[in-house]
TrEMBL record:
<dbReference type="InterPro" id="IPR010445">
    <property type="entry name" value="LapA_dom"/>
</dbReference>
<keyword id="KW-1133">Transmembrane helix</keyword>
<keyword id="KW-1003">Cell membrane</keyword>
<keyword id="KW-0175">Coiled coil</keyword>
<feature type="coiled-coil region">
    <location>
        <begin position="78"/>
        <end position="108"/>
    </location>
</feature>
<keyword id="KW-0812">Transmembrane</keyword>
<protein>
    <submittedName>
        <fullName>Putative phosphoribosylanthranilate isomerase</fullName>
    </submittedName>
</protein>
<dbReference type="GO" id="GO:0005886">
    <property type="term" value="C:plasma membrane"/>
</dbReference>
<feature type="domain" description="Lipopolysaccharide assembly protein A">
    <location>
        <begin position="24"/>
        <end position="96"/>
    </location>
</feature>
<feature type="transmembrane region" description="Helical">
    <location>
        <begin position="49"/>
        <end position="69"/>
    </location>
</feature>
<dbReference type="Pfam" id="PF06305">
    <property type="entry name" value="LapA_dom"/>
</dbReference>
<keyword id="KW-0472">Membrane</keyword>
<dbReference type="GO" id="GO:0016853">
    <property type="term" value="F:isomerase activity"/>
</dbReference>
<keyword id="KW-0413">Isomerase</keyword>
Length: 117
């Protein structure tokens, strides 16, 4: 059921994107620098693209910038989780070492029964 809802949602998104593309087919000029600054710099980069490509590229660029920003923001949380994981592993090794020392010299069957019980 959820799979069909997902497919319906993706179909609606596809129809909306096609409608936006069909409605915004006219070409627009994109310039890297404003005219005054381009005259001072001595060069001007200009590109003619359909408006829907500019819209879609802007949305994709915004998503990518947001993903990278969020990944950098969460770095401290990932680092802390990694530190806690290493500390827990170290403590587990120490506990196993101490358990081995506690049962040293005892009968193996009795040591297993004590450690499980």
């Amino acid at each position: 059921m959820i799979r069909y809802i997902r497919y319906a949602f993706l179909a609606v998104i596809a129809v909306v994107l096609v409608a936006i593309a069909a409605a915004n087919r006219e070409a627009v000029s994109l310039q890297l620098l404003p005219e005054g600054l381009a005259d001072i710099a001595g060069w001007n980069f200009m590109l003619e693209l359909p408006l829907f490509l500019v819209i879609f590229a802007s949305v994709i660029a915004g998503l990518l910038i947001g993903f990278v920003w969020e990944w950098m923001r969460e770095h401290k949380h990932r680092a802390e989780a990694r530190r806690q994981k290493h500390a827990a592993q170290s403590l587990n090794r120490e506990v196993e070492k101490l358990r081995g020392e506690k049962h040293k010299g005892k009968d193996e069957v009795l040591a297993l029964l004590e450690s499980n019980g």
